[in-house]
Amino acid sequence: MDECTKELIAIGASVSAHCQPCVTYHVGKARELGISDELILEAVAVGQMVERGAGAAMRDFCKELLEKTAAVEGCRSGNGAGVATGGNARCHCG
What we know:
mainly alpha, rod-shaped, 3 helices, AhpD-like, 94 residues
């Protein structure tokens, strides 16, 4: 794999990992290699797409996990406590 491709991948990975110092470094390195801003922006866009997909999958996973946990523990979301609130409160059901 050539250095330009590696830097474009690194830019996308850095964006999806929310690592600002990494994005800064890899964009600078890409420019040193003569990679156009158009390609750099495309790599950023790919990283953002990956991040959005991963974020959506994690939200769905957590929602499903918490719903299963609440059902198993017998928690009621209407009591202001427990797993469904997303807070630090413990379930005080029953």
